[in-house]
């Protein structure tokens, strides 16, 4: 018998994106002459940087000739890239992370899913509400989420983030074993301060819990008091794994490359009480189930760690931040409560028409021809919000801003 993993039956029925597509198609059919501006895009729109393309071309040439050809690379990633990351992302910020604590992958989403391999199905998991949906779905597939009732999993601790706590999660009363934190946050766009994150690291040190820290938007941080890396906090390398990606800062969403830091000081405990290095476990997992990210994408990523590459990351993230900032200012002028857009490309906008994010979504679509993502797709605390993004052209963003005037008509 082809017996299936029953956990898949417990996955949430996610109609969000198909529902968005359906409503947009309907709108197009009924308004064939009206312009539609996509402000729901969760993908970058600028092309790869010239310095990255040059390096990729050189890498292709390497593979084309016998003398420079490369076959399997190290499962952990090439040292040229791991050394660059250790230097530019950590050493230059006075953070002590060594190259062999950095594991290169084909992106953050894979690592987020694969990390579940290392931890007991009995671990209690905490997730911010709202949040990037993969954190919960990965744990459902692994069998860690429990049963689903009224949109809530029995074994997940939801940490509510709303204006009352400035979108900063409060420490939960029931102590979780694993806590997912994402800062700067998708979807709320808010960053975390050093003192807020210190609370979490302290809590985990005291309770023996793990933080899985998703820093996919680290390069969008502009304010000095906002944290880029969890390891800016003292002793965080005893309790935190950090996941980063070249997708949102350097346009690698199609090319694919990211990395995960698993510090050597991080220890876990088997059910028989034996302690083990999580770093060694992850290394064992990767060498068995992964043959490394492609040489071409790793070479491309290395170009990000040059003077030209640094400037290009800054200018691309500035571009998206500017778009998001303009959207936010306009919506504030129109009397909306909005969040984010200072240290992230996302604007989180509170509805004035009620608690349902779909009503707000429809109003924006029908009055202005603007698409958005209904907040409810990110969790129950997203209800009554929509997410807009800076991932469009400056020109389209300016046109969207003009059209927003039609909202109050
Ligand atoms: C986009 C995104 C990811 C996925 O990044 P990839 O490296 O492209 O897989 C992970 N986490 C968050 C919060 C994201 O927004």
Radius of gyration using CA atoms only: 22 Å
Heterogens: pyridoxal-5'-phosphate
Number of helices: 12
The first-to-last residue Cα distance is 60 Å
Principal-axes shape call: globular
Number of beta-strand segments: 17
Mean pLDDT score: 96
Q: Structural class given helices, strands, pairing?
A: alpha/beta
Q: Which range does the strand content fall in? A: 15-25%
Uncertain segments are none
* Main sheet specs: 7 strands, mixed
How are the strands ordered across the major sheet? Answer: 2-10-9-8-7-3-6
Q: What letter string, H or E per element, gives the SSE order?
A: HEHHEHEHEEEEHEEHEEEHHHEEHEEEH
- Helical fraction equals 25-40%
What does the model show?
With 409 residues, the protein is of the alpha/beta class. It is 35% helix and 15% strand. The strands form five sheets. It has a seven-stranded mixed β-sheet, sandwiched between helices. Strands 13-14-17-16 form a four-stranded antiparallel β-sheet. Strands 1-15 form a two-stranded parallel sheet. Strand 7, helix 6 (194-207) and strand 8 (210-214) form a beta-alpha-beta unit. The longest helix is centred in the C-terminal third of the chain and has 27 residues, at 307-333. Pyridoxal-5'-phosphate (PLP) binds at residues 107-109, 132, 182, 186, 214, 216, 245, 247-248, 253, 258. Residues 107-109, 132, 182, 186, 214, 216, 245, 247-248, 253, 258 line the site of pyridoxal-5'-phosphate.
